[in-house]
Design brief:
By secondary structure, the protein is α+β, with helices and mostly antiparallel strands. Helix content is about 70%, strand content about 10%. It has a six-stranded mixed β-sheet with strand order 2-10-9-4-7-6, with no helix packed on it. Helix 4 packs antiparallel against helix 5, helix 5 runs parallel beside helix 7 and helix 6 packs antiparallel against helix 9. The longest helix has about 45 residues.
Length: about 850
């Protein structure tokens, strides 16, 4: 009745019952059809009732959005489950706004058991269709690459549909957006480029001040010129060989690196030129400053310290200046951090040859001079009657100035490049503006460090008190002041530039700064004659040569513990401070920025290290020129200080190498989409063992090379003492040039094989065993290389200073049996601390940066994995 009443109150005509009945019937039919359609749609929208379920990255959303920075890749996991024994069809189509988008089907795998499927169309050329028969679960890994060049905002749409025999239909849409391109801000890179140039100009100013100083008397000038000629002859000869390698490798990069090949090859060549230039400038001024330091020491201790330190500052500021200038320039030109990885590889290549070749040269000469001069003939160190004395003094420059400068130049550039590359993915979820800020931050921190290092140089001065503690504090005052100023300004940059919400990144930077200083102090403890470890080695000299060697090894092994703990604390701290708990990639960025923080004050840290060889040369010139005892006492004090700073410098270099290698490894893992290293994978284990073995094989090559050079040097020195009459009576001069030539030839010959090993091995393993195995290799090489480098550097430094402690009067002083035993320890330790150990820093960094540069080739053409 209610229905009738409502019908009667309607606008339908009441006088035509048939018309009214027909109208009601039509409405009823429409209602039934509508209900059926709605019901069917409801069923189709409800995936739980469907025989097939689709998940994208563990999400059941019907529409998933993701944002990429241009030139970035992302990987999606698409899982399809057919839960009933029904026929189903999976269809995937996409439409892209431009041809620059790339889509590939990386993997198809079954995770639940047996299934049967048939690919009806393939590859993903707009369309993929698969028929399913029966219960199954298939996981697809789809890789989507956004346009490689800057573009306006675009959306890529991937449409996924499932059809079933029962007529059920489900659809999901995956939308990937590329961020709107904004031109890279040229202002800040220009500023950092100018600050890099300012560092170079400041070093030129220091050079001018040094060259104004008096060179001393005729004898001092003659000795200095001999050292300079030998050093520059060696470097010129070495660079001729390196030029061939750079040309060949540049051609290889230009041929195999795809669309950006010429850019990467150009960056590689520029990196090699800048690194070689830094080494050449540093060693050039060091050989000019040695006699001037001796002459300044005749007037006072502070004058000698300032000349030697200023020459070291030229090296330090040239390294950081050219490093920041080169990275900033290439970023302004190319706007792509991945291309600048070629610059880092160029720097690494020069560093390897400079460090290995220089180390073989200096220690071959040093061992030969000590074994014949000190042990067999009983003459003092740097005695002009020793034919190898000039070669030894030359070696101080080619090994500890050019070699160390190239080593830390590589770390400096590598940390900047790794941090810039990681920024692309680390800040992508925060927008392109933050990506660009993340890229610029390491350059800004480096610029701040340069300014603070320049300021720190003015704090280095001392009085006339010849005490190691006073002299050491004179240098530390400069380092600590630069570190404090850098920390304060870095805080302001992070808060103002990135925003207070990213304050954790500042703490990551602080972690790196503190780790660098702490590792230096720990290295000093294990190598300085003031402390128990080194004095215990001296005590063991009472019982002979063997116990000195045994104790030195024990001290070296013991010294690995605390630096490893420091790095082990620094890595997770930097990771979590930067936001690793929010985004793992952001945490990796934190580790990379910690490496930048550690190296930010390299301008003054390297200055205190490069100061050492100049002071050592000054002492040798003082001895050979027969200057008064008080002058020798001052130069000996400066030389002894140089030994301490050299040891701490090596510790700093090793720590920075570990963090830099880890940052580059993180960048490599992003380049090859390596989320984790699976230790159950036999290929990964294979790579891990190969990587762990490489540092030992590399050290065997370099130490064996020193042995060959030393063997030839000992024979030559013995020959001259035997065949040239009157050397011991100062009636005839030794043939210094012959010894210099022996060291030069041997170093050039023996540095080739270790260099090839470092470059070829990662490429070969990557192509044969795959990206994951190469990741295992890099991990194994980094861990073993780090530990072995600490052991060798600290054991060698402790042996050296134990000898000097005895020479100072302990256990009978020079010429005693204990002294002879300590000379043996020092001789064994020489290739440890100045050849093999420091070269390991470059090995682990070079292999990682080679892997990063060749990542696209390895990813495309690997055979296994």
């Amino acid at each position: 009745m209610i229905t009738i009443e409502k019908a009667e109150k309607s606008n339908f005509p009441t006088h035509n019952k048939m018309h009214r009945s027909m109208t009601c019937g039509i409405i009823l039919i429409l209602m039934i059809l509508s209900s059926f359609i709605i019901t069917q749609n409801a069923v189709a929208q409800e995936p739980l009732e469907s025989p097939m379920e689709v998940e994208i990255d563990e999400s059941n959303d019907t529409k998933i959005e993701h944002t990429l920075y241009w030139g970035q890749e992302t990987e999606f996991e698409i899982k399809i489950k057919n839960t009933k024994n029904e026929h189903g069809k999976f269809i995937m189509t996409y439409s892209n706004p431009s041809d620059d988008w790339q889509v590939s089907l990386k993997d198809v795998s079954n995770k639940t058991g047996k299934y049967e499927y048939q690919i009806l169309s393939f590859p993903l050329g707009k369309h993929l269709e698969i028929d399913f028969f029966g219960k199954s679960e298939i996981t697809f890994l789809i890789v989507i690459t956004s346009p490689s060049e800057p573009v306006d905002e675009e959306e890529f749409e991937l449409r996924i549909m499932t059809e079933y025999s029962g007529g059920i239909f489900e659809e999901k849409v995956l939308v990937v957006k590329v961020l709107t391109d904004q031109k890279n801000d040229w202002v800040l890179p220009t500023i950092t480029l100018m600050i890099g140039g300012m560092a170079v100009l400041f070093s030129l100013g220091l050079t001018w001040l040094i060259l104004k100083k008096n060179r001393g008397n005729k004898k001092m000038i003659e000795i200095s010129d001999s050292i300079r000629q030998g050093a520059m002859a060696y470097l010129n000869r070495q660079y001729k060989m390196i030029v061939i390698f750079v040309i060949v490798m540049g051609i290889v990069l230009a041929l195999v690196m795809g669309l950006d090949a010429w850019k990467i090859a150009t960056a590689f060549v520029v990196g090699a030129i800048f690194s070689a230039s830094a080494g050449y400038i540093g060693m050039n001024i060091a050989t000019h400053a040695n006699s001037r330091t001796t002459q300044a020491a005749r007037k006072g201790l502070n004058q000698g310290l300032r000349v030697a330190f200023n020459s070291g500052a030229v090296m330090g500021l040239t390294v950081v200046g050219l490093g920041l200038l080169g990275v900033s320039l290439l970023y302004l030109i190319f706007g792509d951090p991945t291309i600048i990885a070629g610059f880092s590889m160029g720097a690494s290549s020069i560093a390897l040859f400079a460090r290995v070749g220089g180390g073989i040269y200096t220690k071959g000469a040093d061992v030969g001079a000590d074994l014949v001069g000190k042990v067999e003939k009983g003459i003092p160190e740097d005695d002009p009657r020793n034919p190898a004395v000039i070669a030894d003094l030359v070696g101080d420059n080619v090994g500890d100035v050019a070699g160390m400068g190239a080593d830390l130049y590589e770390s400096y550039v590598g940390s900047l490049v790794a941090c810039m590359i990681l920024s692309i993915t680390a800040f992508a979820f925060l927008g392109q503006d933050m990506v660009l800020k993340g890229i610029m931050l390491p350059l800004l921190i480096a610029a701040i460090g340069i300014i603070c290092s320049i300021v720190g140089t003015f704090f280095v001065k001392t009085g006339e008190t010849v005490e190691q503690g006073v002299l050491l504090w004179a240098l530390r005052r400069g380092i600590f002041s630069a570190a404090i100023f850098t920390a304060i300004l870095s805080y302001l940059v992070v808060v103002i530039y990135l925003g207070a919400e990213h304050i954790g990144i500042f703490f990551s930077i602080l972690c790196g700064l503190m780790a660098g200083v702490t590792i230096g102090l720990i290295t000093e403890y294990f190598t300085s004659e003031k402390y128990t470890p080194t004095r215990s080695i001296a005590d063991n000299a009472k019982t002979g040569h063997a116990t000195v060697i045994i104790k030195g090894f024990a001290v070296g092994m013991q010294s690995t513990a605390i630096p490893v703990i420091i790095i082990a604390v620094t890595i997770p701290a930097a990771y979590f401070f930067a936001g690793g708990f929010i985004s793992p990639v952001l945490g990796l960025y934190g580790i990379a920025i910690a490496a930048v923080g550690m190296l930010s004050t390299l301008g003054i840290t390297l200055a205190t290290d490069a100061y050492g060889p100049v002071a050592d040369n000054a002492g040798g010139i003082s001895e050979m020129a027969g200057l008064p005892e008080k002058v020798r006492k001052r130069t000996d004090a400066l030389d002894s200080l140089g030994n301490t700073t050299a040891a701490t410098g090596k510790g700093f270099a090793i720590g920075s190498a570990a963090l830099t290698a880890l940052a580059l490894l993180a960048a490599y893992s992003q380049a090859v989409r390596l989320d984790n290293i699976n230790l159950i994978n036999p290929l990964v284990i294979t790579g891990l063992f190969i990587g762990g073995m490489l540092p030992f094989l590399f050290c065997s090559m370099t130490i064996n090379a020193v042995g060959k050079a030393a063997f030839r040097m000992v024979e030559e020195v013995r020959r001259q003492f035997k065949e040239i009459p009157g050397i011991m009576q100062n009636k005839n001069k030794p043939d210094y040039a012959r010894c210099v030539d022996i060291s030069t030839q041997t170093a050039q010959q023996e540095m080739v094989l270790p260099g090839i090993l470092a470059v070829v091995t990662p490429i070969a393993v990557g192509l044969l065993l795959g990206p994951a195995a190469l990741g295992g290799l890099l991990v194994g090489a980094t861990v073993c290389g780090f530990l072995l480098a600490i052991l060798m550097a600290n054991a060698g430094g402790a042996w050296d200073n134990a000898k000097k402690f005895i020479e100072g009067g302990y256990l009978g002083g020079k010429g005693s049996e204990a002294h002879k035993a300590s000379v043996t320890g020092d001789t064994v330790g020489d290739p440890f601390k100045d050849t093999a150990g420091p070269s390991l820093n470059i090995l682990i960094k070079l292999m990682t940066v080679v892997s990063l540069v060749f990542a696209p080739v390895i990813l495309a053409f690997h055979i296994l994995g």
